[in-house]
Amino acid sequence: MPVKTHSPSPANPPAPVKSDGRKPWRKKSPVDVILDQAQKLRAEIAETETELNGKKAQLKKFEEACKLFEQG
């Protein structure tokens, strides 16, 4: 026989549990959402630029190596 588990009904959601490590939830305004998205995009661009600069440096080394092989 299957065991029934009690699931909270939509009319009675479980009470939020406050823990010391988390801030209470607050609804973000549309301005806050846009500012958060802009900040995330800035961080992503900075990370991509760092990767790109590393790849450019690696390409420069390979091109220098190719010049050495062409001379020899």
Poorly predicted ranges (pLDDT <50, ≥5 residues)? none
Strand content: under 5%
Tell me, rounded to a whole number, the average pLDDT: 85
Shape: elongated
**Class computed from helices, strands and strand pairing:** mainly alpha
H/E element sequence? H
Distance between the termini: 82 Å
What is the radius of gyration computed over CA atoms, rounded to a whole number of angstroms? Answer: 27 Å
In percent, how helical is the residue content?
Answer: 55-70%
Q: What is the β-strand count?
A: 0
Polypeptide structure, described:
- There is one protein chain.
- This protein is mostly helical and 72 residues long.
- Helices cover 58% and strands 0% of the residues.
- The chain contains one helix and no strands.
- The longest helix is centred in the last third of the chain and has 42 residues, at 30-71.
- The chain starts with 29 loop residues before the first helix and ends with a helix.
- 0% of the residues are buried.
- The mean pLDDT is 85.
Question: What's the short version?
Answer:
This protein has 72 residues and is mainly alpha-helical. It has one helix at 30-71.
